[in-house]
């Protein structure tokens, strides 16, 4: 049998394709390969088991909720019409006024937020800063577990069935919408109880605890009373959708920059500092995405709080539906009231998202 000269064949192949012989061209080719390949092997996400999404989401949600609970209490009170009059009076602004002074105070002054936290601490005690944390955790853990589980699972299903296994912004949109709808429907009663407890002032308490609140709502408002504010929650899914889309796009940019720097290498080949840097970038992206989404969609938060609060006026419910609530609030308090509590909301949700998504990513790495 005739022996084949492998070295000669390789040399002939290179000579027959002279453009490969240049180091400069080789570098350009590698660069083009990194930038232009639509679906390189390493760009495909490794499938994550559904239970991993479920566990990671719950742990991330719990960590974020505990750390940022005081801001949640302040935000809920500022959104309530009961507390609005008190804070506006303290700020020297009459009801219905939308002056520049009040706007700057309510939207921009972080100092005021911490002042309110101080007042709650002095007047009602340290535990009042964590009012509603129990039902909040009872809500957050399953809510985040359901959300991350549904999003991760449906994203894989939609991409496989509708887009030949490839991810795209519209796939993220569909998955986020499905996750938002499922989460809102399952957990609305828990959020209603949390809101009622946070607005239950010391000295005029209506509810002894979470169970007492649930019994009172069912007795006085019926089982459907537990689903007040659900329409606003569905509207609030827009925030989650926008956040997921922005987060996924930012992650893609981070990954592309990593590919430009290192090429298509396995995660295990990167050093520890690079892994930490990318994890911090992804966590920060979650916070930035949440910031943008919150600014755009915040008014629904105020409406949802008012609907869950269910205040009475002349023997009738003051807020009876989504559109009606928007009209009443804007008519009586001005459009600026649609952003009441925005500052503590951002102080809570932005770091909450950083902690939650960062923990989610970390737990997925550990469990996978």
What does this structure look like?
- The chain has a single domain, classed as Mitochondrial carrier domain (Mitochondrial carrier fold, Alpha/alpha barrel), CATH 1.50.40.
- Helix content is 73%, strand content 1%.
- The protein is built from 14 helices and 2 strands, in the order H-H-H-H-H-H-H-H-H-H-H-H-E-E-H-H.
- The protein has a two-stranded antiparallel sheet.
- Helix 7 runs antiparallel to helix 8 (169-198) and helix 10 packs antiparallel against helix 11.
- The two termini are 51 Å apart.
The biggest beta sheet reads: 2 strands, antiparallel
What is the name of the CATH architecture?
Answer: Alpha/alpha barrel
User: What is the CATH topology assignment?
Assistant: Mitochondrial carrier fold
Q: Which CATH first-tier class would you pick?
A: Mainly Alpha
How many distinct folded domains?
1
Q: Portion of residues in helices? A: over 70%
Q: What is the topology, as strand order, of the major beta sheet?
A: 1-2
Family: Belongs to the mitochondrial carrier (TC 2.A.29) family.
GO biological process, one term: pyrimidine nucleotide import into mitochondrion
GO molecular function: pyrimidine nucleotide transmembrane transporter activity
Organism: Kluyveromyces marxianus (strain DMKU3-1042 / BCC 29191 / NBRC 104275)
């Amino acid at each position: 049998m005739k022996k084949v000269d492998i070295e000669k064949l390789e040399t002939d192949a290179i000579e027959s394709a002279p453009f490969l012989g240049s180091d400069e061209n080789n570098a350009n080719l590698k660069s083009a390969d990194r930038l232009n390949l639509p679906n390189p092997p390493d760009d495909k996400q490794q499938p994550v088991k559904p239970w991993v999404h479920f566990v990671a989401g719950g742990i991330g949600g719990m960590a974020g909720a505990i750390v940022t609970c005081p801001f949640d209490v302040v935000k809920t009170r500022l959104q309530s019409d009961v507390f609005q009059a008190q804070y506006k009076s303290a700020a020297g602004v009459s009801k219905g006024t939308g002056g520049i002074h009040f706007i700057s105070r309510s939207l921009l002054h972080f100092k005021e937020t911490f002042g309110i936290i101080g007042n709650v601490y002095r007047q009602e005690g340290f535990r009042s800063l964590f009012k509603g944390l129990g039902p909040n955790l009872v809500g957050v853990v399953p809510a985040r577990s359901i959300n991350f589980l549904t999003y991760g699972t449906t994203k894989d299903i939609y991409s496989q069935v509708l887009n030949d296994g490839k991810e795209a912004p519209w796939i993220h949109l569909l998955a986020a919408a499905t996750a938002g709808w499922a989460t809102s429907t399952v957990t609305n009663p828990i959020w209603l109880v949390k809101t009622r407890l946070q607005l239950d002032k010391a000295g005029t308490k209506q509810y002894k605890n979470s169970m007492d609140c649930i019994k009172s709502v069912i007795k006085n408002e019926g089982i459907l009373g537990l689903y007040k504010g659900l329409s606003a929650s569905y509207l609030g899914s827009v925030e989650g959708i926008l956040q997921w889309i922005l987060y996924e796009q930012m992650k893609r940019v981070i990954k592309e920059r990593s590919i430009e720097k290192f090429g298509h290498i396995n995660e295990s080949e990167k050093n520890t500092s690079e892994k930490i840097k990318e994890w911090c970038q992804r966590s920060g992206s979650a916070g930035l995405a949440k910031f943008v989404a919150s600014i755009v969609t915040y008014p629904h938060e105020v409406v949802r709080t008012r609907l869950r609060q269910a205040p009475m006026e002349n023997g009738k419910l003051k807020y009876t539906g989504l559109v009606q609530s928007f009209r009443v609030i804007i008519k009586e308090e001005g459009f600026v009231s649609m952003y009441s509590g925005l500052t503590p909301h951002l102080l809570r949700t932005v770091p909450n998202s950083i902690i939650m998504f960062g923990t989610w990513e970390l737990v997925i790495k550990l469990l996978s």
